[in-house]
Amino acid sequence: MEGGIDTSTDTSAFKECLSLTWRNPYVLRLAFSAGIGGLLFGYDTGVISGALLYIRDDFKSVDRKTVLQESIVSMAVAGAIIGAAVGGWMNDRFGRRRVLLIADFLFFVGAVIMASAPGAALLIVGRIFVGLGVGMASMTSPLYISEASPAKIRGALVSTNGFLITGGQFLSYLINLAFTKAPGTWRWMVGVAGFPALLQFILMLLLPESPRWLYRKGREEAAKVILRKIYPAHEVEQEIQDLKESVEAEIKEEGSSEKMNIIKLLKTKAVRRGLTAGVGLQVFQQFVGINTVMYYSPTIVQLAGFASNRTALLLSLVTAGLNAFGSIVSIYFIDRTGRKKLLIISLTGVVVSLGVLSGVFHETTTHSPMVSRVETSHFSNITCPDYSSALNSGAWDCMTCLKASSPDCGFCSSPTNKVNHMENQKIQI
């Protein structure tokens, strides 16, 4: 980045950020407009958790086939992989601003397709479109913010993109709650994402390209015009010079016969350790299972016995809220305590939380209530086919019921209310 990220950032970084953006609203406008991409990223990855409850109610094929539920959720991730893979090339070829515009178009089209989908197939198609937008926006938004921000507050502004992602997830749960009793329920939930996408599209049309990309493409005067709007008059010339030197060094390296390749980078100890730490953290934070919790949180709550869709969404809001709150805490403490210490504290919390979850799941499995024909007789003898034909049905408990292969088996289920939490707490299979 031109000028680099100011390494002298301290606990007053965000006070400096507020001060500079107050004196120069243009910087805040650039950061906010690009940051909507992070908000959309969080919203579209979080909204499906609540919408899925109502999609299953409307489409019986989705309710009966878990593979369809998994496809509706995971196709956004698959699309994001593709979007991120091509996003880097597109950023260099077409510029950051155009890639964000393309991502907004994909977000909007995906939202419209999902909101009007007559069945699971089009829902999956819409999720793929949204995923492509997520992949592009996830790498382009922070890149645009970093290249269009003053060096002194660059770290602070880029950090807010992470908060907007978790904030978008929290917002998705609030939107889900707001539309639980509206006609169309889940169609509104997934369709609302089209509005911020349209807003960002309009805002980005009115904003310039990244000054670094312009300079890199030989459009020096256009880049200087933007830098003069971003930096105070007494700093702009130095920033122009820093940008010039940075781009020239980059071009020189690309044209050199000694250009470093992946193998040479991996042979460099410092680069190898940094790459291992950075990529390792990204990989392992996914393997702890946070995406499963975020995507299926209301479903997990219902399996715990809270039957109401609205109640399940309300309880899941706690998870999303703590997720967003964690981002705020990390932004405040990251320069006060340091990256490593904050990371160790966070990982300790993750380990403890996973240990508690494991213990609870183990207790639930080993102490699952038994199920008998006497209990099912309270529901007009509606029983699970697997239970009826079981050789040893007397050994069945709630966990056996949940694991049954028949799509008609489930926790507290009935034809009229799939998750029917009875007042007498009886379990029906």
Reconstruct the topology from this structure.
Layout: H1 13-23, H2 25-58, H3 60-64, H4 66-94, H5 96-115, H6 120-147, H7 154-178, H8 186-191, H9 194-205, H10 211-216, H11 220-230, H12 233-255, H13 262-267, H14 269-287, H15 290-303, H16 309-337, H17 339-366, H18 373-376, H19 385-388, H20 398-402
GO molecular function: myo-inositol:proton symporter activity
Membrane topology: Multi-pass membrane protein
InterPro entries: MFS_dom, MFS_sugar_transport-like, MFS_trans_sf, Myo-inositol_Transporter, Sugar/inositol_transpt, Sugar_transporter_CS
Question: Could you explain the architecture of this structure?
Answer:
It is a multi-pass membrane protein. InterPro entries: MFS_dom, MFS_sugar_transport-like, MFS_trans_sf, Myo-inositol_Transporter, Sugar/inositol_transpt, Sugar_transporter_CS. The protein is mainly α and about 425 residues long. The chain has a domain at about 15-205 and about 260-270: Growth Hormone, Chain: A (Up-down Bundle), CATH 1.20.1250.20. It is about 75% helix and about 0% strand. The chain contains 20 helices and no strands. The protein is elongated. It starts with 12 loop residues before the first helix and ends in a 27-residue tail after the last helix. Mean pLDDT is about 80; it is low at about 1-10 and about 420-429.
Summed up:
With 429 residues, the chain is mainly alpha-helical. It is 74% helix and 0% strand.
Question: For this entry, what is the oligomeric state of its chains?
Answer: single chain
Number of helices: 20
CATH topology of the domain at 13-207 and 260-272: Growth Hormone, Chain: A
Gross CATH architecture of the domain at 13-207 and 260-272 = Up-down Bundle
Instruction: Return the string of H and E elements.
Output: HHHHHHHHHHHHHHHHHHHH
